[in-house]
Amino acid sequence: MVFATIYRERSITRAAEALHVSQPAVSASVAKLREIYQDPLFVRSRQGVTPTNLSRSLIGPITESLALLDKTMLEATGFDPATSQRTISFSVGDLAEVLFLTPLVHTIQALGSGITVHNQQVLDQEIHDKLVSGELDFAIEYFQIDESMLGRQLLLNDDFVCVVNNNNPCLEQEWNLECYLAQDHLLVSTRPHGAGYVDTVLEQQGLSRRILVRVQHCLVAEPMVLQNQVCLTVPRKLVDCCMDASQLSILPVPFEMPQLELWLYWHQNSESSAAHRWVRELITQPAH
Length: 288
Prior knowledge:
288 residues; alpha/beta; D-Maltodextrin-Binding Protein, domain 2; 2 domains; five-stranded mixed sheet
């Protein structure tokens, strides 16, 4: 438990707080583990501590053992979503928050449950390790993560559309690829840099567009389009759920564009958890 908590928290101090024990007690446990494995296990860094290569190889089996213990305890005590007090942690983007977390929270609240939901989108390269360590219970992403020990399920296929305001001059022209590429574009991406999904597809076809403005949140997309002559290329679900289509013009994408796929990910060690199964079943219900 100490090892897994330090791995998750990346800090001796935060691990002690999470375990409700003193920092010297955690340090003493780490010292014993270092002696057993003849490895530092965790080395100091600017953010706290960083796991060594040996620690990274150990976290999977240790998490699996803890999950087995958790399963045994759940089988003994049972899991009742109406009385559970656990926190379910996610890494999802804006659209997935609307489509999947909102109905999940509605169900939890209707039960009068003590379950809480926490979402914090993490970097792509960190998703696997955080699922392995238990820091994340679930992640929802548009790309496939080909990593061992991860379970996954396809949640959504959706077409892309182009969105402009009703006064955009492009509406007076023939809407085709040339017209599309001539527009100033709005890109919504939670990632601070790098090509967006649409731009990656365009690049594969030897094309490019001008990104006038890049934002990280869907909330600003509608007013940005309404008040500026920009073109937004997004999944149709985003328009249906988060925008007033009566004030906007919805146009087809004038080039070959694959559908958006949203995937739910979890670590296979959690598949035996009754709480995880309950959440997965809710999220993957066809009604969502």
